[in-house]
Write a structure and sequence with these properties.
heterotrimer; B: 384 residues; Rossmann fold; 13 helices; 37% helix; C: 286 residues; alpha/beta; 8-stranded mixed β-sheet; binds thiamine diphosphate; binds iron/sulfur cluster; binds magnesium ion
Amino acid sequence: MGRTEILIGGVGGQGVVLSGILLGTAASLYDGKQAVQTQSYSSELRGGSARAEVIISEDRITDPEVRRADILILMAEDAVGRYLNKIKPKGLLVIDADLVKGVTSGDYDILAIPATSIADKEMNNIIVANLIILGALIKKTKLLSVESMEKAIEASVPKKAKDLNLKAFRRGLELS
Amino acid sequence: MDEKRVHTGRYFMMGNVACAEGALAAGCEFAAGYPITPATEIANHLAEKLPRVGGAFFQMEDEISSIAAVIGASWAGKKAMTVTSGPGISLMLENIGFAIGVETPCVIVNVQRGAPTTGMPTIGIQGDMVQAKHGSHGDYEIIALCPSSPQEMFDHTVIAFNYAERYRTPVFLLSDAFVGHMREEVVIPEAEKIETVYRNIPEPGTDPLKVKGFLDEDVAPMPIFGKGFKAHVTSSCHDEYGKRNLIDISALDKFVRRLSNKILKHKEEITLVERDYEDAEIVLVSYGGVSRAAAAAASQARKRGIPVGTLRLITVWPFPGEEIEKMARKTKQVIVLENNLGQVYPYIKAEAAHFAEVSFLPPKLVGEIQDPEDILKKIEEVSK
Amino acid sequence: MNELVHPYHCFIRPTVTHTTFCPGCGDGTVAQSILRAIDGLGMDMDDFVFVSGIGCAAWIPSPFFNADVLHTTHGRPIAFAFGIKMGLPDKKVMVVSGDGDLVAIGGNHLIQNARRNIEMTVICVNNGIYGMTGGQAAPTTPMGVKTTTTPYGTFENFFEDISGLVIAAGASFVARWTTAHPRQLTNSIKKAIQKKGFAFIEVLSQCPVQFGRKMGTGNAVQMLEDYKKRSISIKEAKKLSPEELRDRIVVGEFVDLDKPEMVEEVTRMIRRASGEVQEVVDAGRG
Ligand SMILES: Cc1ncc(C[n+]2csc(CCOP(=O)(O)OP(=O)(O)O)c2C)c(N)n1
Ligand code: SF4
Ligand SMILES: [Mg+2]
């Protein structure tokens, strides 16, 4: 089947939706795959909860909803209660270890990345923690090619933030 | 078509943006609206792109004036549209009736959101389906298209403009927050591959007294303003010449029937459906984003050896009753799926129940389209 | 034999055979002032698009005027006119409607478009009542008056100065007259038509049938006499105290100024956005 369902949960301002767009763009435009990205957010732009869903597949994607996530990325403690039950047995749980503490082990792999502290210390900007996570995810899963991801970053991120985002993504590649 | 209007290429694009791109490609020149989640991206994109091709988006004081300005611009000869969500449609309804009554081409995009009332703005539901058909007062027919993907947000917006212009009527694009905010591959074809239609207008120089600009079931030429037609356009009951008649019941009867018949007479060419139910004993009927879950479930069911098919309504209004009947005659079970508590279901049931068992599967959570697993369970249940 | 034809007959839609106004209604005077102004300017009906809402006054252009006429919904004509003007910037767009239509149900469209200062002429026929629906209170009905919906007298404060409202909102031309001032009214309409901006004219117009009866102000002749008696020019009014001005009708042209007009601003924006002209934008312009 080759259908991978990804759910990203966090709060507004963390780049949750951008992460989804990057994965979808890389898959759809540069990796020869199909992708659907959907999102929901509460009305507050910052601080409210945010969720992005991405489905990546070799074939046409009919059902566009993430039902059971093969990959669950949690970027805020708040998201644990809301989405942990959505992970598929034997799925992959990716967390920002600086922000998400309350995860107990279960029938899933855990990839814990101290993304916020790395972004803070090394890049002086916690806003790119999401790119570090994506780097680590791509390294671990080979879900998409690094080149496709980098092209997607270049195409989707504002010019002046491009280098910083690429740097964070590449830093993530070294992590898992 | 103008090159600058059509941004040919392959994109990973949000549905709402694709809708705005479709409007540009269709030749939209005037857009008016009032900001509302989850439709704002369409307005924002039009505000940026329309001036580059000589048009403009106007932020009005409310949705009542938005649709009014759109109708005014349409009578001024412009292709015009408004974009909003359910609360905005509620405010527009009187003037939508006006647009129907005086046969004004325009496109109304409703990116439906969690409702009733203010509801939950970022969650998509199919909650305003019947409102589009019956929201304004009186008997009338409307055209409504239900896209299920960003690509269709583009394609259907073009079709909506073409229908609006061809049949001189408001046309709804009934999307929702889920499809509107969805990103997926969107291919915008070359300009010359996109068909665009502009309304018929009377021969310039026609004696104004001879212009029959209304109430023709085959669509009267539109005596748009500024061309010397001296058009008298009134939403009061009128005759073919636009002349008001507030006393003869026969005039009212003609007014009501001809407006409706104008759509019904062309129903076959308006109706768009996707049929995939050859030899199916169970047919899933749905529209919009839900139809994708239905397609997933049907394909899984067939893999399990259950003959399940699908019928997807692209135009929900005018209601494609003949299509429903045709399908129902060939099958045993009909399962209707909508992301609401059953709005189009009664219409489908009325057409299908004489020939097949008809049931409804609501979403488990209103706002989240049916899980194919749940649809499969329902399929297994009815196939027993 | 020479048939006698009224000089403004050519402005009237040929299919119209009679007026629908009650005898003595002021709306006929308003209609004639509009046509005199158009004729006086040497303009043609094809230079105009008329827009009206719902009410007796809204029937002035629809069906009588032999021109493009959009007869819209109650309260919304200015909003429709907005779209027409944007689509046909070279045409004169004129809205004719009642006080209830433009100031009650449609009040916000009046305010917002005066603020935008979009070029159009709005003629508000103020008879102080809802004429068409049978004499209900309007926001312009003086306090205490018994109407069909206020049988014990209205208990609301009322709009004594619609023109003041429109001035405050930002219109570039505002005038008030009564049907007892047809000549002055015609002159102001001429200026309004030529104004690059939102031009508003309030006309106090007698409704002998629904208002006169209720107020006890009598028939049309008595009401016109009353308008004449109570009217006072802007200049004279300045000399009087607010107490002395009570019950008086200040008439004249209150505002006639030049300021940015919306259609022109939109055209300029489109030129910039489409790359047709490179223009330095002074974002801080007042
Ligand atoms: C939405 C709506 N509400 C109510 C009416 C009924 N209605 C018709 S005319 C009118 C009042 C008109 O008053 P005004 O604008 O002052 O005009 P007049 O008849 O006094 O000239 C009303 C309430 C309507 N047509 N539409
Ligand atoms: S009801 Fe009043 S305003 Fe209406 S036509 Fe009669 S007199 Fe004129
Ligand atoms: Mg009135």
